[in-house]
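Notebook entry, structure prediction.
Reason for the run: the old model in the group folder had no record of what sequence produced it. Starting over properly, with the input documented here first.
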Amino acid sequence: MALAKISGENRRTKSLLFLICCALAGISPHLMEPSKNLFPSITLAVLLGGYGLRVVLRDRRGNYQLQKEHLTDDETLPKVDVLVAARDEENVIERLVSRLLSIEYPEEKLSLWIIDDGSKDRTPDLLQKLCTKFSRINVLSRPSMSGGGKSGALNSVLDKTDGEWLFILDADAQLQRNVLLRAISLALHGGWSGLQLRKSVVNCELNQIAAYQAMEMAMDAVIQRGRLASGGVSELRGNGQLINRKVLESCGGFNEQTITDDLDLSFRFLLTRSPIVIMWDPPIQEEAVTSFSALFRQRKRWAEGGLQRFFDYWPLLISKRLSNLKKIDLACFFLLQYVLPVVSFIDFIVSVVLFEMPLYWPLSIVAFSISGLAYWKGCSQNSEGPKLPAPTFLNILGATIYLAHWFIVIPFIVLKMSLFRKTLIWEKTDHIGS
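New structure, fully documented this time:
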């Protein structure tokens, strides 16, 4: 099965089968004898808890860290294209251009591209003025409803660029001037095909929702680095990703049949044996959403895109293309990230109907405990970006409770994917210019 031919067929059927399997897993323990009905949950808690603990402990400060002697000389630096897909970004587009122009990299080896993807606000006018003022900025405009979402926008500029590497940013990205130089040096020295900068939050002091997202991003980096150090899989996160053009072309470019280009591309890199590294410092800085409604809109897209890739690529994920360690890592990640929320939701509904206690609480407690440990580890580390929230007991407790939103979002998305046909729409996160 060629990667370029995967187009996301039969996702509705696959989602329905997934829902049925989760329903059976959630209901079955309630049909067992009381002396045995906790056995499935306890068994999974031991196995997945051991996996999660190993992952968190394997993340160490020295992992994948750039040494000063590894910095690449200007003469040997590869050509890099910086690409930004922007839609309705009038609040941040001027700041973005300022950040792009400040990147420390030889000008003759750096091209800066902004793709205006059918903006309906003042973004096109602002870009026209900025392009006139700064000749280094290249702008490509796509008509409204061109299709393909962010992937389509990025694909539209590939034939106009020739850089050996692509540096993908979101419109709200804020970055240190030397971040590209350090990232490309780490990628070249380590032989990585892709590099993801740790994501950090610039507005984490606005409210607790933003603060918990800052902690969540630190936790995610810890888990990603730990998975990689354990022989598992690490993933791209969209904003702040550095990717090798030849590898991207061998994968068939950006997939326009997905709503999360970064997660889909992560699997394409994985299946072509093209490793991705997570760089802790310096991070890429971005805005967190500051309301529950915006959070749920964002997380619904992430959840749906995350599930889509498993449904699309599962025949290849269980093939000989992947090592056993990577298969185990993916299986454990899938169980914790997607299966557990759906099974726990069904378990809760059944327990309410039968006036019984939920039976998957041991697994849920272990999963939340591992998350709390990852929070503590991530927020305890130094950060060259915005200061991370202190890993106090109350902060970790609040952030752990905050994670429960996934136990609502993922079951909702699975049900939606099972019952309704999906129209691919790139629902962007609004940026206010924090």
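Summary: The beta strands are 80-86, 110-117, 137-142, 165-169, 194-201, 241-244, 276-286.
The old model has been moved to the deprecated folder.
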